[in-house]
Design a protein that fits this description.
Layout lengths: L1 H12 L18 E8 L10 E4 L2 E7 L5 E6 L5 E5 L6 E4 L6 E4 L6 H18 L1
Parallel strand pairs: 1-7
Antiparallel strand pairs: 1-4, 2-3, 2-5, 5-6
Organism: Hymenobacter psychrotolerans DSM 18569
Protein name: Carboxypeptidase regulatory-like domain-containing protein
Keywords: Carboxypeptidase, Hydrolase, Protease, Signal
Length: 128
Amino acid sequence: MLSFSLLLSLLCLTPTAAPISVPGTMQQAPVYQLVGSVTGQAGKPLAGATVALANNRNSSVITNSVGQFLLPSPDATPALRFSFAGYYDTTAVMPATGTLVVEMRPVARYKKQLKKQVKSAKKAWEKA
């Protein structure tokens, strides 16, 4: 019982202090909002395309239903990587002003290649 009351008194007496700020350590880097759109052939928007910072794959977003994206970035003009199933991956640099519009090129005979991969994967699965 004595240890419980001692612990309780220590918890109650613990001082609350404001965070200590050391010059140069608490400053936040500015965050830029990168805006753009991703299209396929004939300018059709690609919904669900992945947009990522080229140097940081952990920072990525998916385009909305009209192919637009909004990506926070520590840099104002970073290189961006775009990917979508059935299209070649594309890299582009964000312009200093305005929005970025990226047109992705489709992979030739993608459906045929996909069917071939599914068929070989199915064979490998049945063997194992």
